[in-house]
Amino acid sequence: MALHKDSYVELNDGHKMPVLGFGTYAPQKFPKNLAEEGTKVAIDVGYRHIDGAFLYGNEVEVGRAIRAKIADGTVKREQLFYTGKLWSTFHTPEMVRPALEKSLKDLQLDYMDLFIIHTPMEFKPGDDIFPVDENGKFIYHNTDIRDTWKALEECKDSGLVRSIGVSNFNHKQLELILNMPGLKYKPVCNQVECHVYLNQSKLLEFCKSNDIVLVGYSVLGSSRDERWIEPSAPVLLEDPVLNAIAKKHNCTTAQVAMRYHLQRGVIVLAKSFTPSRIQQNFQIFDFRLDAEDMRRIDALNRNMRYFDTSKLTDHPKYPYSEEY
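Structure for Rho crystallin, as requested:
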């Protein structure tokens, strides 16, 4: 498809999602007001898709930025696409709607455009975001994910959210929902780690064949959050192949990395709180990678994850033991 700054994909429920989103996550050491300032800059630059989450702890600030940009006439609410996420301590069906309502209250929005299950791995229900036992081990819980999904369907029916989806699911976990008795709405998307070292080609094919959009996070590598990222992991934006292709097109390696995924049909989330980079990352619509560029970037795949989830491998719903 021809990509331009207002490009969107039509989701399987008829709603439209802009192909480029602004990510609002930042490691804890960053002040919360950066998310507010960054979101304002992003909307000014042209982003219409804002990706947030309860877990990020900054929905109040992001909501303020959205309302400021609506108030000053930059955008109308219906032109924006906001994604929120159901955290892992709220999978029990009776906690789903209150969790969504809490985020909406923090954001001061009447509805979300998209609400997704943040990860299939559930923790002990309650207010402790990462509940651990006396030995420092995570305390798991095991609600049937289909019951969680039914509660999301009810949120959609009540008008609190337009579309519903999932994140960090493997194809078997997606199939569990797709094949569930009485399914009312298919997930519109699966948001997963996706970059040139983990190009998710099999999961992408699976999602496309089921009319589910793949949304990629960590497209530029990672935020190098010490809690989750292996410090020795290669810096994606220093990759020599990406650098060579960027020189050829007279653009940045970040722009090449993002453009690659857009051309494969992946929705791209870009995170930065630096105004010049927010602007640069949006400028990926005025060049095109050729077939040879795409082939060279395809060859960089090494199924490498930046997010280290080794502490969670014993979770009954750990998604990454499957190939895709």
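Strands lie at 8-10, 16-18, 20-23, 49-51, 81-86, 112-117, 161-167, 189-193, 213-217, 267-271.
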